[in-house]
Write a structure and sequence with these properties.
This protein has three domains: about 120 residues, no CATH class; about 80 residues, no CATH class; about 110 residues, no CATH class. About 35% of the residues lie in helices and about 25% in strands. The protein has eleven helices and 15 strands. The longest helix has 20 residues.
Length: about 350
């Protein structure tokens, strides 16, 4: 029995489906959704008026007023896709069934869509999902004043998120303070691999000169009108947030403070809304910068609104990305939400 307890958990059904070719996977996902809808939600696909469709986020079984949506992706943005689909059909009741992130979807759906109930799928068992509370940020390392002074002296912005102290240039990380056996140290580089390579190549050199040279390199590309380059194609929503932070008066903002993403980013390549809290004409405002067609934007806003309790939300987004579905979905937030155009500093 002891040996059995060390066995890894069985793979999720959706993980097994990924190994199949697309046609097989689509067929099995369709069969699974039909069975779940019939057995657990009394929605029979063989009944007149009930349709079964494939969607980017999974398979839907629906009548004219209610639906079962079986999600096969672990991407948190799928809730945004489900919301767009629900709005288009005007459904009154939707059961979202998923093996992944059920607690997070339940938390966000409670804010955005009372017509959606989230259910967790575990093997063949289906149960109502319990909303997962928003995790508190991790505690940061103590006694960092000396290293923070190095970052400030070098010309980078000090940004703390989820207990991690970073050096940033126009929203792009160029270094961070990490815990080492000898105590906190400043690692320099754009992303983990660059930091690790720098630590190996320059272990005998002080961090400050390396940070200054990295800042100079990044600043040459992370400036208005700079030609397209790998350095200015990542973290663009954070770049826009930095534009707002350095010139808040253009949007009538004062008392600006950066806000952590929920959940925290684990990679520089992860796109997601970049937010700050500010005063706008005496109104406590959550300001959010976003780039591209982001189905996950409004679900992430739900968490930010829950955590920070603003009186209103202002979404700053490039004109080409202001699509109608964003305005419709943002109307589901429990506080007034508006969108405004922001000029981008990069040239594509």
């Amino acid at each position: 029995m002891a040996a059995a307890s060390r066995l890894p958990p069985p793979p999720k059904t959706a993980d097994l489906l990924v190994s199949l070719d697309p046609a097989q996977r689509e067929g099995l996902e369709r069969v699974r959704a039909i069975a779940l809808a019939r057995e657990h939600f009394e929605l029979d696909a063989s009944t007149d008026g009930v349709e079964v469709d494939a969607a980017p986020f999974g398979v839907t079984v629906h009548s004219s007023d209610r639906a079962v949506v079986v999600v096969s992706s672990d991407d948190l943005a799928v809730l945004g896709g489900v919301l767009v689909w629900v709005d288009r059909l005007g459904l009154d009741s939707v059961a979202l069934v998923t093996e992944y992130n059920a607690g997070v979807h339940a938390r966000r759906a409670a804010v955005l869509a009372p017509e959606i109930t989230v259910h967790e799928l575990n093997g063949a068992a289906v149960a109502p999902a319990i909303a997962t509370p928003i995790a508190e940020p991790r505690a940061g390392l103590p006694d960092l004043a000396v290293l923070v002074a190095v970052i400030e002296r070098s010309g980078a912005q000090v940004v703390e998120e989820d207990g991690i102290m970073r050096a940033e240039v126009a929203g792009l990380e160029v270094g961070r303070i990490v815990d080492a056996p000898t105590g906190p140290i400043l690692e320099v580089g754009v992303g983990r691999f660059d930091r690790e390579a720098g630590a190996l190549l320059h272990s005998d050199r002080p961090a400050e000169p390396n940070l200054v040279s990295t800042i100079e390199l990044v600043s040459a590309h992370r400036r208005a009108g700079a030609p397209s380059h790998a350095i200015n194609r990542i973290g663009r929503e954070r770049w826009l947030r930095d534009v707002v932070r350095t010139n808040p008066g253009e949007w009538g903002l004062t008392e600006v403070a950066l806000v952590e993403p929920i959940p925290p980013r684990t990679s520089l390549l992860e796109a997601g809304p970049a937010a700050l809290m500010a005063d706008r004409d005496g109104v406590r405002t959550l300001v959010v910068c976003s780039v591209g067609v982001e189905l996950g934007l409004v679900p992430e806003l739900a968490d930010l609104v829950t955590r920070h309790g603003p009186d209103t939300v202002l979404v700053l987004i490039p004109a080409r990305d202001q699509l109608p579905f964003l305005a419709r979905l943002s109307g589901r937030l429990p506080v007034p939400t508006s969108m405004a155009h922001i000029e981008v500093p990069w040239a594509d």
